[in-house]
From TrEMBL:
This is Transglycosylase associated protein. It is found in: Cell membrane. Belongs to the UPF0410 family. GO terms for cellular component: plasma membrane. It is a multi-pass membrane protein. The keyword Signal does not apply.
Amino acid sequence: MLWTILVGALIGLIAGAITKKGGSMGWIANILAGLVGSVIGQALLGSWGPSLAGMALIPSILGAVIVVLVVSYLLSRVGH
């Protein structure tokens, strides 16, 4: 379980760095983005490439990027 959380945090951190929105998210949001992104990415793209803690890294990172972008967009819409 701890390993899964750490890998989820890493995936969320990478997705935040790619989108340039990770600095403002915080650790819990990074973990959630990584874990949710992993599920979405693997559902859309399959489980290919290297994996850690049962998560295929490339589809998981791409899924997390999608999650970060969608959440950032929705939060910006709520703020206006």
